[in-house]
Design brief:
The protein is α+β, with helices and mostly antiparallel strands and about 350 residues long. The chain has three domains: about 190 residues, Beta-Lactamase, CATH 3.30.450; about 80 residues, Beta-Lactamase (2-Layer Sandwich), CATH 3.30.450; about 60 residues, Orthogonal Bundle (Arc Repressor Mutant, subunit A). It is built from 16 helices and ten strands. The protein has a five-stranded antiparallel sheet with strand order 2-1-5-4-3. A five-stranded antiparallel sheet has the order 7-6-10-9-8, with helices on both faces. Strand 4 and strand 5 form a beta hairpin. It is elongated and about 105 Å long. The protein starts with a helix and ends with a helix. This is GAF domain-containing protein.
Length: about 350
């Protein structure tokens, strides 16, 4: 058995208690890392945090997608971009410290590869590391779901001490915490993307919808709902009363600001089954405007009458299509038939028939 392997086996003898102590000492940083918004902010926080626990002159993080092998994120502090490119092209494939970390699935440094005098003669040292005064290097793998998904890296110069067993333990814990923070960041990013898509679909809907998140104390009303509620003096407080009342459906009277007849609005509210603190309310205004005279109404089909009423209420073709779940072209086709049957030539004339 090699000297390097003997040392590594020796690390395992007392790693349990020491690891617990390091986890307790470093755990305060987890809250700092997991609250980062996005990978860029996470990397900044990580570099600032880890420098206090594993002092080095250079640090790096490397993340890749295990399914495709493509790089997700790569950042190095303390070394030039030219070094990063040289390492990626000439060093990564032959780096014995990286190979050791991947094989052991914990932090690995140059002292576990070879004695110091032999290490200085290693090809990667002579051809790359020594040009940047990287006398000592250490790498810890990022593990997720049993797969290696990246590494965190450290380098010390000739004036700094070699990495030891304590450094390796702390680097292993730092890698675990960084990976936990990456997972949290990925989850937040996915949730934000899903929420943005959901809000976008909600905004595009022709139906007036309000989503109230009691836990987050947030509320989102789409455009039709805002148009309905903003036109009234106390509609938002009335909406709160409807939700607090716990009724599945409640009828509200919305009184417009200034003069104007009140509008009857039905509010149907229900919590999401998977998140009871999120309540979805669907608003439907019931216009008190007079309808078509019965003699004219009998000339139209049920669909034509519905479209005529919406036109008289000032709705556009796109809004009518969304409300009735038909295409705008179908709306136009029905309008031509309505105009012909009622002997009108414009939306204004059609609306006028409702005022007779």
């Amino acid at each position: 058995m090699s000297a390097a392997h003997t040392r590594w086996m020796g690390d395992d003898i007392d790693v349990g208690d020491a690891m617990v102590a390091d986890e307790e000492r470093l755990s305060s940083g987890l809250a700092v890392l997991v609250t980062a918004r996005g990978l860029d902010e996470l990397q900044d926080r990580y570099f600032e945090w880890v420098a206090r626990h594993v002092p080095s002159f250079a640090f790096g993080v490397y993340l890749f997608d295990p399914r495709t092998g493509e790089t997700r994120a790569s950042e190095v502090r303390g070394l030039s971009r030219f070094y990063v490119h040289r390492y990626e092209r000439f060093g990564r494939a032959v780096d014995p410290v990286l190979r050791g970390a991947v094989a052991a699935r914990r932090a690995f440094d140059d002292s576990l590869v070879a004695p110091a005098d032999q290490w200085r003669q290693a090809p990667i040292v002579r051809e790359l590391f020594r040009h940047y005064d990287m006398a000592h290097v250490m790498c810890a793998p990022l593990v997720s779901g049993g797969e290696i998904v990246g590494t965190v890296n450290f380098a010390r110069n000739g004036g700094e001490p070699a990495f030891d067993q304590g450094d390796r333990r702390r680097a292993t814990v730092a890698a675990m915490m960084f990976q936990a923070a990456v997972a949290a960041t990925d989850l937040v990013t996915a949730i934000d993307a899903e929420r943005a898509a959901w809000w976008g679909a909600l905004e595009a809907s022709g139906q007036a919808i309000v989503v109230t998140d009691l836990e987050r104390a947030e509320r989102h009303a789409n455009r039709p709902a805002r148009a309905l509620l903003d036109a009234a003096d106390d509609a938002w407080s009335v909406l709160d009363a409807a939700i607090d009342g716990g009724e599945a459906t409640r009828r509200l009277t919305v009184r417009p600001a200034g003069s104007g007849a009140p509008t009857e609005v039905s509010v149907t509210s229900a919590p999401l089954p998977e998140r009871p603190s999120v309540i979805v309310s669907i608003l439907a205004a019931e216009s008190s405007a007079p309808g078509l005279p019965p003699a004219l109404r009998r000339l139209l089909t049920g669909r034509e009458a519905a479209i005529a009423e919406l036109v008289a209420a000032g709705r556009r073709d796109q809004e009518i299509a969304a409300r009735l779940h038909i295409s705008p072209n179908t709306v136009k086709h029905h309008l031509k038939s309505i105009y012909a049957k009622l002997d009108v030539h414009s939306r204004v004339e059609l609306a006028g028939l409702f005022l007779r």
